[in-house]
Amino acid sequence: MSQLAGKPVHPAATDGIWRDQEKAQPATLRLSREFAGAKPFVLMLLLILLGALLLLSLALGSASIPFDQVLSVLLSGEAEQPAWTNIVLKFRLPKTLTAIFAGMALGVSGLLMQTYFRNPLAEPFVLGLSSGASLGVALVVLTTSAAGGALLAGLGLAGDLLLTVAAGLGAAITMGLVLLLAVRIQSGVTLLILGLMFGYLVAALVSLLLYFALPERIQAYINWTFGSFSGVTGEQLPILAIIVLAGLLLSAALTKPLNALLLGQEYARSLGVNLKWTRIGIVLATALLVSAVTAFCGPIAFIGIAVPHLGRALLASSDHRLLLPGTCLAGACVALCASLIAELPGSNLVLPINVVTALMGAPVVMLVVLRHARGVR
Question: Rounded to an integer, what is the distance from CA 52 to the centroid of its chain?
């Protein structure tokens, strides 16, 4: 299992922080007024920033391509040099769109988890979905013999697709178990703890597989845990997009219950919110978003925990009607920034995505903790 993802935090450790956040924002009393002022302007700036980062992602890399040629490829499909057209359309465009979808999915799923569990350090992998995906990949990669490993590596695209299917099946099975628990269990804290224990259980199984695996198979598994936006092909991208968009639409349908949950489940129940179906909807939306990203990109860490705080800071709002689109845009921007930094433009080196996201996300989480520890509102 990745050492950077899938490590949920026990709610008792951060109850004080979350209560401080609630005191700092009398949630629903000001929701109708939070659309006024600069909020739409901030969303527009995020959209412009996303467009600029998209062009940068297509232009920069081991070989730099002029911006006018990138625009020419996007508009007409042709560039002055045929190689530039292939680079943009076959390699950089799928990678860029994958980063956008992954950033949106992880950002929104982190927002859902932090709101539902009322825990500012909750993350998308808190329900054990990443652990399930990791176990699926581990079973394929670590249990093959040397000959099987060579065959898997020789399959190229088919081998990558097999790993994606294995991760997807592992995440899907976990999603089914979590949904079953969500139907039967009323307490969010209990669901959180069960997800935590499931993560540790799967980590133990993966560690056991690693202990008996061949060295080259261990390296192949570790490479998957680093995460990557460049492994998704143009044929796989529509599948990722459909699953992510389905999760985002379901999340958008939950904005009113999420706003009510800001002041606690009892308050939400008094407003007529069906907590059972809201809980199932939140878990299903998170499962769709996280399982898709983990299956296609690996366990991408820190985006899900840091981006919701970034969205709240930029928008100065607790209204999920604002936070959902803001988190979508901020998540896409952060993922594209991480992808650009990992590419090290002008060189042939590529850093692991999880290294970059940890360097970007860890300071944000530290600031959140320190800010509330000092009593700053």
Answer: 21
Q: What is the 3-state secondary structure (H, E, C) of the chain?
A: CCCCCCCCCCHHHCHHHHHHHHHHCCHHHCHHHCCCCCHHHHHHHHHHHHHHHHHHHHHCCCCCCCHHHHHHHHHHCCCCCHHHHHHHHHHHHHHHHHHHHHHHHHHHHHHHHHHHHCCCCCCHHHHCHHHHHHHHHHHHHHCCCHHHHHHHHHCCHHHHHHHHHHHHHHHHHHHHHHHHHHHHCCCHHHHHHHHHHHHHHHHHHHHHHHHHCCHHHHHHHHHHHCCCCCCCCCCCHHHHHHHHHHHHHHHHCCHHHHHHHCCCHHHHHHCCCCHHHHHHHHHHHHHHHHHHHHHHHCCCCCHHHHHHHHHHHHHCCCCHHHHHHHHHHHHHHHHHHHHHHHHCCCCCCCCCHHHHHHHHHHHHHHHHHHHHHCCCC
Q: What are phi and psi of 9, to 5 degrees?
A: -105, 135
From the centroid of its chain, how far is CA 281? Answer: 18
pLDDT at 38: 64
- Mean pLDDT, contiguous 10-residue spans, the chain (377 residues): 43 44 44 55 92 91 84 80 84 93 94 85 77 81 54 45 73 76 72 78 85 80 84 84 93 91 81 84 86 85 89 86 93 94 81 88 78 60
- pLDDT for 373: 63
Contact 134, 170 (CB under 8 A): yes
Q: Which long-range contacts (CB under 8 A, 24 or more apart) does 235-239 make?
A: 236/161, 236/164, 236/296, 237/94, 237/97, 237/98, 239/296
CA angle 43, 237, 258 (to 5 degrees): 40
Exposed/middle/buried for residue 270 (C-beta within 10 Å: 0-12, 13-18, 19+): exposed
CA distance 309 to 364: 8
Rounded to whole angstroms, the Cα distance separating 302 from 101 reads: 16
Distance of CA 171 to the CA centre of its chain: 14
What is the C-alpha to C-alpha distance for residues 113 and 116, in angstroms, rounded to an integer? Answer: 5
Contacts of 287 (CB under 8 A, 6+ apart): 127, 129, 171, 174, 175, 178, 179
